[in-house]
TrEMBL record:
<dbReference type="InterPro" id="IPR050428">
    <property type="entry name" value="TCS_sensor_his_kinase"/>
</dbReference>
<feature type="domain" description="Histidine kinase">
    <location>
        <begin position="236"/>
        <end position="446"/>
    </location>
</feature>
<dbReference type="InterPro" id="IPR036890">
    <property type="entry name" value="HATPase_C_sf"/>
</dbReference>
<dbReference type="Pfam" id="PF02518">
    <property type="entry name" value="HATPase_c"/>
</dbReference>
<keyword id="KW-0812">Transmembrane</keyword>
<dbReference type="InterPro" id="IPR004358">
    <property type="entry name" value="Sig_transdc_His_kin-like_C"/>
</dbReference>
<feature type="transmembrane region" description="Helical">
    <location>
        <begin position="150"/>
        <end position="173"/>
    </location>
</feature>
<keyword id="KW-0597">Phosphoprotein</keyword>
<keyword id="KW-0902">Two-component regulatory system</keyword>
<feature type="domain" description="HAMP">
    <location>
        <begin position="174"/>
        <end position="228"/>
    </location>
</feature>
<keyword id="KW-0418">Kinase</keyword>
<keyword id="KW-0472">Membrane</keyword>
<dbReference type="InterPro" id="IPR005467">
    <property type="entry name" value="His_kinase_dom"/>
</dbReference>
<dbReference type="InterPro" id="IPR003660">
    <property type="entry name" value="HAMP_dom"/>
</dbReference>
<dbReference type="InterPro" id="IPR003594">
    <property type="entry name" value="HATPase_dom"/>
</dbReference>
<feature type="transmembrane region" description="Helical">
    <location>
        <begin position="20"/>
        <end position="43"/>
    </location>
</feature>
<dbReference type="InterPro" id="IPR036097">
    <property type="entry name" value="HisK_dim/P_sf"/>
</dbReference>
């Protein structure tokens, strides 16, 4: 029973009934108030009509008994009493009895002139006319009884409205609740699905459920993609780290076995160990750079032109290819200088690794349409169209057959992309003409 009270169908129906009940109470109170005021006004109009009729009667008439009975002909329960200046008093039929009862009745303060007498309701009015005093008692019990009957009918209709409304809302909410139960069941099945291929069914209505299911599927795809990338990252990292470690251990074992008898192998093995250990150090630092969380720290305004110019000049001194620079001066930006140097070094070295010694590398920096643009163009091997997006994946290398010949870990461009996105920039690659590639980075000009 407790679980049933906690479900959405029960709670929504319960709240609907409470709201409907409160609304009907307000409506019924308004109905009672309007009915009482309308009945009171009706009785006052009836009294005013009788008073006006009697006021038109001449003072010297001798038919007062007939006149007072005529004024109450519509309702025998009405009563009229007329007191003339010369002393005579006239009552309508049963008028004396009614006025005697009214003298013992109870007046209502909320409605002036209303008197309750022996379970009957009267409107009492007194008016001074020319040569006479007129007292009037208008019977209002029938009007009140009619109002009570209408109120009882209204209550009955209210009860029916609550019952029918509750049933309808219970059925409709039950339909939505079944949709939620189905979604919950599918989520549980998705959680235990080993293949991780299922998606949540998207209901056609209501819109909120459809949006939730769609957003859940999008989040699910994003999570699965992230898990897949992380799994691939771990596998690739393990492979990349294992290769130099295996080579180092092999040469260590070689020195142990043959070093004493063949000292000439020691020097070459140590050189190889030194080379592979440096490669391992670079790879480890790159992995740490990728896994390091972005820290919010104050950034100083630096001369981007100066930093890129200095980095490019250092690269030019060690590069086999011809390097051409076109750096627009006085371009400034709030960035970390070391991160910008890292972006430049990765792009420059990447261009050099996949270019021949006779090729040319062109480095340009400038402002274009409210953006800061850094371009690194080479005339080397180029990048196939189907691989332009994948080159930013960790450990992905274009030509696997040359991976052993071309130095690198395959995560340099991943580091570049993460740094560029940190500063709300974008990086893209396109073909150079006639051969080669152009890496273009755009930062917003702020």
């Amino acid at each position: 029973m407790k679980n049933k009270k906690n479900n959405a169908q029960y709670q929504l129906t319960n709240r609907f009934v409470k709201i409907l009940l409160l609304l009907l109470i307000v409506i019924n109170l308004a109905f009672i108030g309007i009915s009482l005021i309308s009945s009171y006004r009706y009785l006052n109009n009836q009294a005013a009509e009788i008073m006006n009729t009697l006021q038109e009667v001449p003072q010297d008439t001798s038919e007062w008994t007939t006149l007072v009975n005529a004024t109450t002909a519509k309702d025998d329960e009405d009563a009229v009493r007329i007191l003339l200046e010369n002393g005579p008093m006239y009552y309508s039929k049963e008028g004396k009895v009614i006025f005697d009862k009214l003298a013992q009745g109870r007046a209502l303060l909320l409605f002036p002139g209303i008197i309750l007498s022996e379970n009957k309701i009267y409107l009492y009015q007194k008016q001074e006319q020319a040569g006479r005093t007129v007292e009037l008692a208008v019977h209002g019990t029938q009007i009140v009884e009619l109002m009570v009957r209408m109120f009882l009918i209204s209550l009955l209709l209210n009860v029916l409205a609550i019952i029918i409304g509750s049933l309808v809302i219970y059925l409709f909410v039950g339909k939505w609740s079944r949709t939620l139960h189905q979604m919950t069941k599918e989520m549980t099945e998705i959680e235990t699905d080993e293949k991780q291929e299922r998606h949540l069914s998207v209901p056609s209505s209501p819109n909120e459920f459809r949006q939730v299911a769609t957003s859940f599927n999008q989040l699910l795809d994003t999570q699965r993609g992230a898990i897949k990338r992380e799994s691939q990252f771990v596998a690739d990292a393990s492979h990349e780290l294992r290769t130099p470690l295996t080579a180092i251990r092999g040469h260590v074992q070689l020195i142990k076995r043959r070093g004493s008898q063949h000292p000439e192998v020691i020097g070459s093995s140590i050189d190889f160990i030194d080379k592979e250990s440096k490669r391992l150090e670079v790879l480890t630092n790159q992995l740490l750079a990728l896994g390091r969380p972005t820290m919010d720290k104050p950034l100083s305004l630096i001369s981007l032109s100066k930093v890129i110019q200095q980095t490019a000049e250092e690269f030019r001194r060690t590069c086999k290819q011809e390097v051409t620079l076109s750096i627009e001066p006085e371009i400034q930006m709030h960035v970390d200088e070391l991160e910008i140097q890292q972006v430049c070094q990765n792009l420059f070295e990447n261009a050099a690794k996949y270019s021949h010694a006779s090729d040319t590398i062109i480095i340009t920096l400038g402002k274009v349409e409210e953006k800061i643009c850094l371009c690194v163009a080479d005339t080397g091997l180029g990048i196939p169209d189907d691989m332009k997006e994948r080159i930013f994946e960790r450990f992905y290398r274009i030509d696997h057959s040359r991976s052993s010949q071309v130095e690198g870990s395959g995560i340099g461009l991943s580091i570049v992309q993460s740094i560029v996105e940190k500063y709300h920039g974008a990086i893209q690659v396109r073909d150079n003409q006639p051969t080669g590639s152009i890496f273009k980075i755009e930062f917003p000009l702020r």
